Amino acid sequence: MEPIKFIYPLVKDLSYEMIVESIKEARKKNIDDFRKHRQMLRDFYDNNQATLEYLFKWGFIDYKTKAILSHLPGISRNITKKVIDRISMCYRVPPTRALLNAKDKPIKDDQYNLFIQDNPAFHPWLKNAERRFNLLGNVLLRPSFIKDQNEMKFFIESDYIAYFTYYDPLHPIGYDIPMRVDVESSKVKQEKWLFINDDFMFYHDQNGNAETVGDLPDFKNPYSIAPLVDFSDFAVDDYWSLGEKNLVEANRMLNIMTLTGMYGFHFQSFDQPYVSGADESDIGQIRLGPHNIAFGPEGSTMSLLGYNPNFSGMTEWLGTFNQTILDDHGLQASFEDPSNIASGVALKIKNQELLENRQDKIDLFRLKEGELLNVISAMTEYHPELKYKIPKDTKLRINFEEIEFPVTEQEERDQYEFERKNNFTTPIEWLKSKDPDLTDDAAQELLDKNKEVNQTQVSLAGNKDNITDLLRGGKNE
After folding, report:
1. Would residue 422 count as lying in a domain?
2. Phi-psi region of 247 (alpha: psi -120 to 50; beta: other; left: phi over 0)
3. Cα distances (angstroms) measured from residue 105 to each of 28, 99, 108, 117, 236
4. For 62-106, how does the pLDDT look when each residue is reduced to its tens digit (9 = 90+)?
5. Is the residue at 280 inside a domain?
6. Which helix (H) or strand (E) holds 83?
7. CB 146 within 8 Å of CB 384
8. Domain contains 455
9. 82, 105, 189, 338: least surrounded by Cβ within 10 Å?
10. Is 176 helix (H, G, I), strand (E, B) or coil?
11. Do 330 and 351 touch, CB atoms closer than 8 A?
12. What count of other Cβ atoms lies within 10 Å of the Cβ of residue 315?
């Protein structure tokens, strides 16, 4: 019995080590596969799938047929970007924000809105973050203070590693973000990662060698809050999302079918001749073309295969497939007469599903806007060069502008008169709705100028003699 007692722990430990290593390898493969999947999503959105090399990479063209097809240009359709941009409706128009005090009253000296006004890239980056979120399901918006330039810049991180505790696999406690490096041959640097959580922030290489960020004295996070916002949906079973996998796979299949159709159209535009009753050595003697008389060896026959491809049927099927993809996202392909404009109510009904999806996203983005306020507040407090003093314990009120659908001029006038009479709007707000770049002061100045011109014209219209004098260039004596 003694040998059995001695051997059993050894076998047990060996089996345990093998299991652990097997799990590690499986997890590594899963991570690599998942990163490749996210890279495919990004490439389709960024229109990087159009190159011939990429068509081979993702199976649009078989390597066996490369010699046959390589002389034809690669072609692809990018419906991924069109769909993602179309369904990203929350930040299409900049939302209005206001800081509130403990009594839910607006703060007069709103330093946060001043920060946004002084950073014109703020809204475009949020718009881009929404689109990347809709594409991938998980992205980070990372503000970063560039001390040498004394300005805040924004980065969208879509290729990162999230860390979790063993008891909570849904809410990350830290992030590893690969840093972009210069790939010029003379400037290639070792791959570097940025680790961030609420307590620490430092660079490290793949071997774990750490270094401080900028002029920070140590590896601690000076903001006491991770300087990023995690744009991820409410996780139920898994933090990571596959994003718009179905959309990209459908786009991939659409490209395969389109390429197949284009190549088929090319090759079948010229019918295939064949000869029977001839040796292979006789084939070279046969000449074809409009200036040649075709002849063959005695007893041979020549004919054409008679291709008759159903291109109209294929085109119709592609249109149906295209619409199926759009249906999954509450969209429709437009084949209507542009001169027959639908009313705003009809368009709302037609886009009801799209508007409902937008409202679901707004609920999430309200929370993310609050997190972003906390990050900007902590960073502006640590960097006095930014000169923004955002009070602590403030709340953010944010209003996402409603989507406006086309209306007739009469409907627009009636709506404005209704809102003005009931004090729902002002002339300044109406002008800014037409020109979002206008400030309140610029809008008031324009109103005053228009008022002065209009009053002058009314005065002239009431005096025909003055109008005659004006046209003649002076008073008629």
Report:
1. no
2. alpha
3. 51, 8, 9, 21, 36
4. 656 555 555 666 667 788 999 999 889 999 889 999 998 888 888
5. yes
6. helix 79-87
7. no
8. no
9. 338
10. strand
11. yes
12. 11
Q: Per residue in 421-451, pLDDT tens?
A: 888 788 888 787 777 777 888 888 888 888 8
179 near 157, Cβ under 8 Å?
no
Domain containing 7: what range?
1-45
Q: Which residue type sits at 48? A: N
DSSP, res 106: B
Q: Residue 381 in contact with residue 390, Cβ under 8 Å? A: yes
Spatial contact of 90 and 398, defined as CB atoms under 8 Å apart: no
Confidence of residue 57 (pLDDT cuts 50, 70, 90): low
3-state DSSP assignment of residue 440 = helix
Q: In sequence order, what DSSP letters do the residues of 333-377 get, joined into one string? A: ---S-TTSPPPHHHHHHHTHHHHHHHHHHHHHHHHHHHHHHHHHH
| Mean pLDDT score, 158-172 | 89
Amino acid making up residue 216: L
For the chain, the domain total comes to 2
9: number of Cβ within 10 Å: 9
Query: Lowest-pLDDT range, 224-228, 291-295, 369-373?
Result: 291-295
Is 272 in contact with 307 (CB distance < 8 Å)?
yes
Q: Which two tokens stand for residue 156?
A: 């969208």
Helix (H, G, I), strand (E, B) or coil at 15: helix
Angle (CA) 29-33-35 rounded to 5° is 115
User: What stretches of 104-196 show up as alpha helix (H) in DSSP?
Assistant: 111-118, 122-136
Over 110-134, what HEC string results? Answer: CHHHHHHHHCCCHHHHHHHHHHHHH
H or E element, residue 418: helix 409-421
- The single-letter code of the amino acid at 44 is F
| The pair of three-digit structure tokens given for residue 76, joined into one six-digit string | 């692809």
Which two three-digit tokens encode residue 299?
A: 């007893």
Per-residue pLDDT of 309-360, as tens digits, reads 677 777 787 777 777 777 777 776 554 444 445 544 555 555 677 788 888 8
- Count the helices and strands in the chain (H runs, E runs): 15, 12
Strand partners, 141: 156, 229
Using CA atoms, how far apart are residues 433 and 431, in angstroms rounded to an integer? 5
Q: Strands, E, within 212-289: which ranges? A: 229-232, 273-276
Is 35 among the domain residues? yes
Position 383, amino acid: H
Enclosing H/E stretch for 454: helix 440-461
